[in-house]
């Protein structure tokens, strides 16, 4: 039984898991959906109630009936490397590939439907409530007046993107930013705006959960630092124990969201409370493992190798 | 409790359901995601474990806690009508809107995640097998040799798009077409190709299922007509009784796919067998109702109005 890894060619995080799978002697095929059609090829047959399919890449062929698990690491857009790429060819190739993979009994990390839903920030906040996390007060609004009132009520407020992605045309970084007290909120009407109570944090926490396992790392913040993704503070990620309340909440969240993998970000305040900021269902773990030695790649390889008896 | 209808302004099918809801005295709000931000506005608040949200359009405000059901009819892309539209503004607006709607307890016709999965043609074929439909032998392949063998084996074979959509750049109609016996299959390598055994049909059947109800209509074909969507034959849609096997298979399919609504297309062969061609989770029903008088809009209104006691 084979593990299928869907990712682009340059992917150090995938390399770490591939090494672990090799060590376990588990067969794997690495496939970039961007190579379909071209270097990658597929065929699926639906005849007399039977389904047979296979996928080939780099001379390796994998049968759909022999798939153990599928890891959606960082796949390119289908047909991205085609001789004549087009939105239509990507749609056709994506339907053919993911539609065929959905016909198998393989377990997904993560299921594509669960992944799509899990990316929705408003739903994340609601789910975090239900799972028992402390969540900073948040609004998402197109009403300038609602934004102004929220900022007045909480005084220290940050603004973030709703989708979590910065604009790409033109490319632009949008770090989480403190809202100045004299801000003009008129622009809120031009696009939904996410405002959140600012947590004065003493550390960032990244918790990576793989199946039932949880790996947490902590990095001390500079006083007044708002977005830990930008700027080097000289501090490094260190392993940290997970409070019992958080362990339970992470398990509940992943269960409700039907996620096999999730990377949770928290802000640790001066009293040691971990405030839920977000759960990235496809979050990186390579940098955490390299700095902390936490065996996350091994856990991913273990989950992908698992065979129900 | 209010019904939310997500659709564009010009939508006769939605108008038919709106009329039925008015007759029942059920409050409704019609909202075009393309109007957000702009004529449409929203606000969601996640504070101390509580969620409150509302949506406003054309002077009507609907509270998320007062939503009974959501009908995804034919919504525009979020922010499509914005003063400065962009892919990023659409992503932000879509996340804000659909993420907020996912926080409610409203029932969806259809649930967006189920809809996405249900659009995958290869998965439809597999599901049709599992549900007990007769399904014409089909392949989806990028191997010219596999395509050639399939065409030789079945002799009468049609080619279709995989995703069901024609290319839009440049715009092009791609009707289902018979493959000539001397076809050159080399082009199959350039994009996944769907080939299906040709069913010599005497009629097209469109079965519209709403909740537990099924409405079938039948239109006689011209001999040799391949794609019923193109060309006028002079025949009209007429109501037809559903064979028991099909009734059971439709119910099984919708259950497995988690769909509240589905429009099933069949080819009826000379022996009266209904062959599954596809299930369009968002298929039109206006033209069927207008020609047959089948009360589909009433059934949709009924499903949307339902309140669990």
From TrEMBL, chains A, B:
<feature type="domain" description="MvdD-like pre-ATP grasp">
    <location>
        <begin position="2"/>
        <end position="111"/>
    </location>
</feature>
<dbReference type="InterPro" id="IPR048936">
    <property type="entry name" value="MvdD-like_ATPgrasp"/>
</dbReference>
<protein>
    <submittedName>
        <fullName>ATP-grasp ribosomal peptide maturase</fullName>
    </submittedName>
</protein>
<dbReference type="InterPro" id="IPR026449">
    <property type="entry name" value="GRASP_SAV_5884"/>
</dbReference>
<dbReference type="Pfam" id="PF21068">
    <property type="entry name" value="ATPgraspMvdD"/>
</dbReference>
């Amino acid at each position: 039984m084979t593990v299928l890894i869907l990712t682009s060619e340059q992917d150090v995080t995938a390399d770490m898991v591939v090494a672990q799978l090799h060590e376990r002697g588990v067969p794997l095929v690495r496939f970039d959906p961007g190579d379909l059609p071209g270097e990658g090829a597929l065929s699926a047959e639906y005849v007399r109630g039977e389904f047979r399919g296979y996928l080939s890449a780099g001379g390796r062929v994998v049968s759909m009936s022999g798939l153990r698990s599928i890891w959606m690491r960082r796949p390119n857009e289908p047909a991205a490397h085609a001789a004549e790429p087009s939105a239509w060819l990507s749609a056709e190739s994506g339907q053919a590939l993911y539609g065929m993979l959905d016909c198998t009994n393989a377990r997904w990390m993560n299921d594509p439907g669960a992944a799509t839903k899990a990316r929705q920030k408003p739903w994340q906040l609601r789910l975090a409530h239900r799972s028992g996390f402390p969540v900073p007060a948040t609004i998402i609004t197109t009403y300038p007046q609602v934004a102004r009132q929220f900022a007045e009520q909480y005084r220290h407020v940050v603004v973030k993107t709703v989708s979590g992605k910065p604009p790409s045309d033109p490319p632009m970084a949008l770090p989480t930013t403190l809202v100045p007290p004299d801000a003009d909120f008129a622009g809120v009407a031009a696009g939904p705006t996410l405002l959140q109570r600012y947590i004065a944090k003493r550390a960032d926490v990244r918790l990576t959960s793989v199946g039932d396992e949880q790996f947490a790392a902590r990095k001390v913040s500079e006083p007044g630092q708002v977005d830990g993704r930008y700027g080097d503070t000289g501090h490094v990620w260190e392993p940290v124990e997970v409070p019992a309340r958080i362990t339970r909440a992470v398990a509940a969240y992943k269960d409700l969201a039907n996620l096999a993998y999730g990377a949770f970000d928290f802000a640790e305040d001066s009293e040691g409370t971990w405030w839920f900021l977000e759960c990235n269902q496809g979050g990186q773990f390579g940098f955490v493992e390299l700095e902390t030695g936490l065996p996350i790649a091994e856990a991913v390889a273990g989950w992908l190798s698992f065979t129900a008896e």
